[in-house]
Amino acid sequence: MSSPQYSEVVETARAYYNSTDADNFYFHIWGGEDIHIGLYESDDEPIANASRRTVHRMAELAGKIDPASRVLDLGAGYGGSMRYLAEHFGCQCVALNLSEVENERNRHMNIEAGLDRNIEVVDGDFTALDFGEDAFDLVWSQDAFLHSGDRAKVCAEAVRVLKPGGRLVFTDPMQADDAPTDQLQPIYDRIHLDSLGSPAFYRETLGELGMKEIEFDDHSHQLPRHYARVRQALIENADELRDRGVSEDYIERMQAGLQHWVDGGHKSFLAWGIFVFEKPAT
What we know:
There is one protein chain. The protein is of the alpha/beta class. Helices cover 45% and strands 18% of the residues. The chain has one domain (8-278): 3-Layer(aba) Sandwich (Rossmann fold). It has eleven helices and nine strands. The strands form two sheets. The chain has a seven-stranded mixed β-sheet, sandwiched between helices. Helix 9 (222-236) packs antiparallel against helix 11. The termini are far apart.
């Protein structure tokens, strides 16, 4: 079987997340199972605890989930969210992600948890989903859409594979609707793109696709809190990363990159929260 042909933007993200540096950083520092923004109760709370709280809250907003439900996670990372849903609700999950390195860790953790029969891990690009229309009851994503060069296509694909009456529940680090884009260039450079999505962009794009907004659970204040917490953990555990073969250049660049997110969040240039959209029943 031939390897998928990815766009330049997707290939850049794929190469990054497949790298030894990134894999060690995200798995050992960012939170392991859940590599997304957390809901913190204190500034020094463990990253993994806060990140898992985000999963709990998204599950609360997702509507009915039961063993008959089919769930698709777009940009699944190490798959912690789908293991949570499979374990607690017995649903059938597909964890789609572009990093083969992360996907292999995901598959091993699914086997160790006894959940591999509930979770299929798929190597793929969420701008071109290899699933038919109306295939899933719930489409889920955490802090992944920002890496796409065509977020409108990601939204269209998510809606296409969602059943009528189903929900799209996602988070994404966004620029605020009124953000001065010239002030966000360091962040754009960090993700190798020239923009972020915004709440207005997702509302307009998904509205044009016929989706109904159910809720935006706004936690924008958690974004700088999270990136500051990750930066602190990076500094505290830098020696461990070096021992694992992570380059000094990566550690230094990551410290600087995380600080850009902290600064942008404190200046209210960035937004983050849990969006819930529903596809009207036919």
